[in-house]
Amino acid sequence: MPMYVVGHKIPDSDSICGAIALAYLKNQIGEAAIAARLGELSPETAFILERFGFDAPEFKESYAGEEVYIVDHSELTQAPDDIEQATIVGIVDHHKLGDLTTSTPLECWIRPVGCSNTVIKMMYDFYGVEIPKDIAGIMLCAILSDTVIFKSPTCTTADIKCVEALADIAGIEDYKALGMEMFKVKSAVEGTPVRDLVMRDFKDFNMNGKLIGIGQLEVIDLSVFDDIKADLETDIAALKAEGNRHSVLLLLTDIMKEGSEMLVVSDDSELTTRAYGKATENGRVWLDGVLSRKKQVVPPLQDALA
Question: Which residues form the DHHA2 domain (predicted)?
Answer without folding.
Answer: 179-305
